[in-house]
Specification:
Shape of chain B: elongated
Number of strands of chain B: 22
Distance between the termini of chain B: 66 Å
InterPro entries (chain A): CheW, CheW-like_dom_sf, CheW-lke_dom
Protein name (chain A): Chemotaxis protein CheW
Strand order of the largest sheet of chain B: 14-18-19-17-16-15
CATH architecture of chain A: Beta Barrel
Number of domains of chain A: 1
Helix content of chain B: 40-55%
Number of domains of chain B: 4
Strand content of chain A: over 45%
CATH architecture of the largest domain in chain B: 2-Layer Sandwich
Number of helices of chain B: 26
Radius of gyration of chain A: 15 Å
Radius of gyration of chain B: 34 Å
Strand content of chain B: 15-25%
Largest sheet of chain B: 6 strands, mixed
Structural class of chain B: alpha+beta
Helix content of chain A: 10-25%
CATH superfamily of the largest domain in chain B: Histidine kinase-like ATPase, C-terminal domain
Structural class of chain A: mainly beta
Organism (chain A): Sulfurimicrobium lacus
Order of helices and strands of chain A: HEEEEEHEEEEEEH
CATH superfamily of chain A: CheA-289, Domain 4
Main location (chain A): cytoplasm
Strand order of the largest sheet of chain A: 8-1-2-11-10-9
CATH class of chain A: Mainly Beta
Largest sheet of chain A: 6 strands, mixed
Oligomer: heterodimer
Number of strands of chain A: 11
Shape of chain A: globular
Subcellular location (chain A): Cytoplasm
Chain lengths: ~160, ~700
């Protein structure tokens, strides 16, 4: 995907969100909607970052808390807590983040390949690092991330 | 611009499947000795529709088979030949072939050409068999197989008048016109008489039509199927003498041209080049052998299968006319939306219940109205998914017929309550378990005719298949008047298999033993019951549908298998229970009773496992809060509620904080966006808009055992 954009020189629209002090970006086309945090029905014996399921207009949607998953920020739930409802791999998944910043366009030359991060986030889900003014954006391949084995969201994983 | 035909394929697939099903049910219902002409016509029409459709969409393999099928049917409906039992068998086989071909087109894959050939041969033989003075329409079959897309060969002789003969344009136009009908070969144009050969799907009349523009009838001659001469050897082997009668007649009409010898050669060469090698091998003996075993069973079979006294066929036909085809997704979407509406209505009702009834009288009136309308709407929408159970039942006359023939038993199948409606999803899943139960009844239940006579029974056994609504359930029964289950035999087998069996075990519990995996009391494993699908699979399938199987049996009198199923997979009667802050739904069908135990009734085993004594029975006690790792409001069973659950003959007591109420809940899948959760079979949305998990009782019992 990254190479593709470089060669075509096209721009990509990204929704940026914050987790702890970091700013992330994901393909806006994967976002269905953004909503507040609602009462969640817990599911027993699941990892802590899987908060449970909610009723999203009649469909059962699992909610993952990325702050817990990435050990970033504080997992507090109040009326300002934001859930990004994603539509990835034919599934609807809710993702709790610290906050949603804005929507930006990033051209291919603003994206640099990602160096190794260490343990916090696996580089295979990072498409690159983007630069907007002085901010650094971590571009995540949200589909790959959400369907990965680490997330325990799907039974058959894409890896 | 060409039209993409593939967009219409699905319609063809659906319609053809329907036609095939209709054909089959009509065929099985046919009275062999005096077939109903209307039925024969209906079968013919169905075959014809399939032929037309498959031709339009370019599925020529199906066109060929139906064409052959149609020929025989045509003769039958014109009463040129009498209907025989083996014809019905052949038709059913042809139906299977068509089904396989349809499936191959739909889902990819291949149909064994050998089988197709065999069945086609058989149909041809039957069509030709008893008809020495064969009429042209009955014999084009081999040609159909030989050249895909062309079903007949015509030898055309044409003596043009002087004007035409000298005008090459007119002749070329004629050839071009003929070529449009199919594959035209110009054999000999040197003499005054032109000889042409045409391989075409068109009939003789269409060829005549073309000639009629330029020639008088006496100027041309059209002879069909001469090209098939090589196949006459095949037919001769059977002693039908069809082509030998025919050929000299043609030669007489066309004497002295030395025409046929080269033709045969050309044909033979052509076939060799094409590698069909079809006529070289003698296909006759094999299919003939297939027909052979039938005769001794035929007369009783013919007597056995009278037209059943029901108007199922009529109803199928009439419903087809007044129905529309809608994709399941659309219906599911509608059902989902109505489910949402029901939930919203419940939410509003809950809020409205808090307002002052005097001040908001009108609002509450409106709420009442909304509630009724919503309920009606939900019912009607649910009923869209409902289909009469005859969709499954209709396949069984054939199953019974074939199996009875194979096992040399005389069996009559009675069906009751075919109009009973249930969810389409369930209907599809019911077919396999029911087939197994019926095969079982036939193989193990119904005795051989001699044995039945010796026991003073009617030599003809009866299997009854019935369906009825009973409360919120549908009850399907497969009963037979056969030998019944043998308690001693089952117990002996159980001991042999090392199954734990108490001495004073009740009959009901003995019968349940046959559901154990790999359990079979059959002395001899026949090809009927040795198919690897055991009763355990039946039971599992039924359980997956949220149903139960019960057995009643009396030695020498018969066996009755009763299947109880919920009406639909989309809605469930449930009991909501509370544990801590969570609400769960227990499917009502599994609940035996609820009780508040005395502290003294709770005992521990080995210091860990708890049991509760209920009327002398010790049941394992499972605390739901422990299974789901949640903090309960009540930690001692005698302060809370025990719900006794029963599944697969095992009982457990589930300890919960409180019972909240009984609801009809709309089942939502957890897997569509998440994954399977252990101990949970699905989710639903409660009146307050929150999600509640539906508990998987089977899994809970399993937890209790491990």
């Amino acid at each position: 995907m990254q190479e593709e954009q470089k060669s075509s020189g096209s721009t990509q629209e990204l929704l940026t969100f914050t987790l702890g002090g970091e700013e992330y970006g994901l393909d806006i086309l994967k976002v269905q909607e953004i909503r507040g945090y609602d009462a969640v029905t817990a599911i027993a014996n699941t990892p802590e970052f899987i908060r449970g399921v909610i009723n999203l207009r009649g469909i059962i949607v699992p909610i993952v808390d990325m702050r817990i998953k990435f050990n970033l920020g504080h997992a507090e739930y109040n009326e300002l807590t934001v859930v990004i409802i994603l539509n990835v791999a034919g599934r609807v998944i809710g993702m709790v983040v610290d906050g949603v910043s804005d929507v930006i366009s990033l051209s291919a030359d603003q994206v640099k390949p990602a160096p190794e991060f260490g343990s916090a986030i696996d580089t295979k889900y990072v498409m690159g690092l983007g630069t907007v003014d002085d901010r650094m954006l971590i571009l995540v391949d949200i589909e790959k991330l959400m369907t990965s084995r680490d997330m325990e969201l799907v039974e058959s994983v894409s890896e | 611009m060409t039209i993409d035909m593939s967009q219409f394929y699905q319609v063809f697939f659906d319609e053809t499947a329907e036609h095939l099903a209709q054909m089959e049910s009509l065929l099985v219902g046919l009275d062999i000795s005096s077939p109903n002409l209307d039925d024969l016509n209906a079968i013919f029409r169905a075959a014809h529709s399939i032929k037309g459709g498959s031709g339009t969409f370019g599925f020529t393999d199906m066109t060929e088979v139906t064409h052959i099928l149609e020929n025989l049917l045509d003769r039958l409906r014109k009463e040129e030949i009498p209907l025989r039992d083996e014809m019905v068998d052949a038709f059913l086989q042809a139906g299977d072939i068509l089904k396989a071909q349809l499936d191959a087109h739909q889902n990819g894959g291949d149909v064994d050409p050998e089988t197709i050939r065999e069945v086609c041969e058989r149909l041809k033989r039957l069509a030709v068999g008893e008809s020495a003075p064969a009429s042209p329409p009955t014999s084009p079959e081999s040609a159909a197989l030989e050249l895909p897309g062309s079903s007949q060969h015509f030898e055309i002789t044409y003596t043009p008048d002087a004007a035409t003969a000298t005008d090459p344009d007119r002749l070329n136009n004629l050839y071009a016109e003929l070529g449009r009908l199919g594959q035209l070969e110009i054999i000999d144009t040197a003499g005054a008489e032109k000889k042409l050969r045409l391989a075409t799907t068109a009939d003789e009349n269409e060829i005549r039509d073309i000639f009629s523009f330029i020639a008088e009838p006496d100027q041309f001659g059209i002879v069909g199927e001469v090209a098939q001469a090589p196949s006459s050897t095949t037919e001769e082997d059977d002693g039908y003498g069809f082509f030998t009668d025919d050929l000299p007649a043609v030669e007489e009409a066309d004497p002295g041209y030395g025409f046929f010898a080269p033709m045969d050669e050309i044909q033979a060469q052509k076939e060799e080049q094409q590698g069909y090698g079809f006529f070289d091998e003698p296909p006759a003996p094999e299919p003939a052998a297939k027909v052979e075993p039938k005769p001794e069973t035929t007369p009783p079979a013919a007597a056995k299968y009278g037209r059943r006294e029901n108007d199922k066929v009529g109803t199928v036909a009439s419903t087809a006319e007044s129905s529309i085809r809608v994709s399941v997704e659309k219906v599911d979407q509608l059902i989902n939306l109505v489910g949402e509406l029901v939930i919203t209505q419940a939410m509003l009702a809950q809020t409205a219940s808090k307002v002052d009834p005097v001040v908001f009288e009108q609002l509450l009136d409106g709420m009442g109205q909304l509630e009724r309308n919503t309920r009606d709407l939900q019912e009607s929408v649910m009923s869209i998914r409902m289909m009469p159970i005859s969709f499954v039942f209709s396949r069984f006359p054939r199953v019974v017929r074939e199996l009875a023939n194979k096992l040399n038993k005389q069996v009559e199948l009675k069906t009751l309550g075919e109009g009973t409606e249930l969810d389409k999803g369930l209907i599809e899943k019911l077919a396999d378990p029911l087939t197994h139960l019926i095969r079982n009844s036939l193989d193990h239940g119904i005795e051989e005719p001699e044995q039945r006579i010796s026991q003073g029974k009617d030599p003809k056994g009866t299997i009854t298949l019935s369906a009825a609504h009973q409360g919120g359930n549908i009850v399907i029964e497969v009963s037979d008047d056969g030998a019944g289950l043998n308690r001693e035999k089952i117990l002996a087998k159980a001991a042999e298999k090392g199954l734990p069996v108490a001495d004073n075990i009740s009959d009901q519990d003995v019968w349940q033993l046959i559901f154990a995996p790999g359990f079979s009391t059959a002395a001899v494993v026949t090809d009927v019951s040795g198919r690897g699908v055991g009763m355990d699979v039946v039971k599992r399938n039924i359980h997956e549908m949220g149903g139960r199987v019960e057995i009643g049996s009396a030695l020498g009198v018969g066996t009755r298998m009763t299947i109880r199923l919920p009406l639909t997979l989309a809605i469930l009667d449930g009991m909501s229970i509370g544990v801590g802050n969570e609400v769960y739904i227990l499917p009502l069908t599994f609940i035996v009773e609820s009780l508040q135990p005395a502290a003294a009734d709770i005992k521990t085993v080995a210091g860990q496992g708890r049991v509760v004594q209920v009327r002398g029975e010790y049941l394992p006690l499972i605390a739901l809060h422990q299974v789901f790792n949640i903090t309960p409001k009540i930690s001692e069973p005698h302060n809370g509620i025990l719900v006794l659950l029963e599944t697969e003959g095992k009982k457990i007591a589930l300890f919960v904080d409180e019972l909240l109420g009984q609801h009809q809940v709309v089942i939502k899948s957890m897997e569509s966006n998440y994954r399977k959760v252990p101990g949970v079979s699905g989710a639903t949305i409660m009146g307050d808009g929150k999600v509640a998990l539906i508990l998987d009782i089977g899994a809970l019992v399993h937890i209790a055992q491990s």
